[in-house]
Amino acid sequence: MLCGVDGAALPFLDSCVLSSKNWNIVGTACGSTQLVFNAVDFVEKYACNDTVVLPCIVINLKENNDSSMHVSWKRQGQVFFSFSGPEQQTYRHESVPSANFLSKMDLSKGVASLQLKNAEATDGNYSCEVTELNREGETKMELRTRMVDSCDEEKPPTPVDKCERQFDLIQSIVISALLVFIIALCWAQLGVIALKCETVRKKKKHITVACSIFTVIAVVAVVLFIQDGSISMNQIGLAFTILPAGMLMVLQYSIFKMVLDDLTHKGYALMGFQVVGYIVAVVGFALSVSACPSVLLSVVIAGLVVMAVADLLALVYVYSCSRMKDHQTPRKAVEEPLNDTKGVMLE
């Protein structure tokens, strides 16, 4: 709910925050050929707003009939929405398919305010031009996006004055740190294989390339996820953080196969542990990405913690298996010459 200079409530503007030094009366005295508006200097929207309302309120209509009115909304000087009263026809640009009057029934009362989805309401200069028969007028405003991490203590938040990020910053940092930790464990397993195991070089190369690709994706995800920017970029960052984590299970299976000829019960148990963690993380992602502000990132964190623990145990498992192979290798090296000698003696 927004208020004018005298403290009177201004309805119809409950999906964004309207700000200005004071309310201006645009136009000349009543009875002239100029339409008069209640106007503001700028409108502020928050990232979590689903919709944005651009105000356009005429206070001195005479006919009070939308059939005698023409309304034209411009962004950066280009018309993106218009209404022709005599024909009752509406035009909207393809970039703003959701744009519509806040209340078509109140248009005859002078309320030509426009409502559209947040994603379609790009920052910039907007203007509303209204014509009634031979009288016309125009009001201008600037639309801004306000990114706020914490609430203003002096001003209690209202249902529409959302002052949180969609994703809590501390939880976002924890998720990013867990992702980095998981990647480090993946590289540590590759290091153990490179130092301890005599495997085909081509196999090692394939695993290394896959782990490198996952690392690059993770870096991009962290940058998009943590930055203060558009909410869609944060959502893409979260998606890049969680969904590609499924690659880790394929990598883990490949690493186990490089160390062991046959996967043991312990290996299958660790793989299952990792799958459970991934499922929990994906469920948390699905619940969090559609909520604004999101309060369910803790589910994502829980899933990543399970995956991190599984990877840590897998590292210990790979290391222990590689040591067993080290002990078996000398015995095999001694047995092979003895077998060759026996074969010569038999001949």
Question: What this model shows, in words?
Answer:
By secondary structure, the protein is α+β, with helices and mostly antiparallel strands. Helices cover about 45% and strands about 20% of the residues. It has helices spanning about 170-195, 200-225, 230-240, 245-260, 265-290, 295-345, and strands spanning about 1-5, 10, 15-20, 25, 35-40, 40-45, 50-55, 55-60, 70-75, 80-85, 90, 100, 115, 125-130, 135-145. The protein has a 7-stranded mixed beta sheet with strand order 3-6-15-14-9-10-11, with no helix packed on it. A hairpin with a 4-residue loop joins strand 10 (about 80-85) and strand 11 (about 90). Helix 1 packs antiparallel against helix 2 and helix 4 (about 245-260) runs parallel beside helix 6.
Please outline the helices and strands.
Elements: E1 2-3, E2 9-10, E3 17-19, E4 24-26, E5 37-39, E6 42-46, E7 51-54, E8 57-58, E9 69-75, E10 78-84, E11 89-92, E12 100-101, E13 114-117, E14 124-132, E15 135-146, H1 169-196, H2 201-226, H3 231-242, H4 246-259, H5 265-289, H6 297-346
Parallel strand pairs: 6-15
Antiparallel strand pairs: 1-2, 3-6, 4-5, 5-8, 7-13, 9-10, 9-14, 10-11, 12-13, 14-15
* Integer-rounded radius of gyration: 32 Å
Mean pLDDT equals 74
Count the beta strands: 15
Structural class: alpha+beta
Percentage of residues assigned to helices: 40-55%
Please trace the helix and strand order, writing H or E for each element. EEEEEEEEEEEEEEEHHHHHH
Morphology call: rod-shaped
The N- to C-terminal Cα distance equals: 101 Å
Q: Give the low-pLDDT segments.
A: 1-23, 148-164, 326-338, 341-347
In spatial order, strands of the major sheet run 3-6-15-14-9-10-11
Q: What characterizes the major β-sheet? A: 7 strands, mixed
How many helices does DSSP assign? 6
What percentage of the residues does DSSP assign to strands (E)? 15-25%
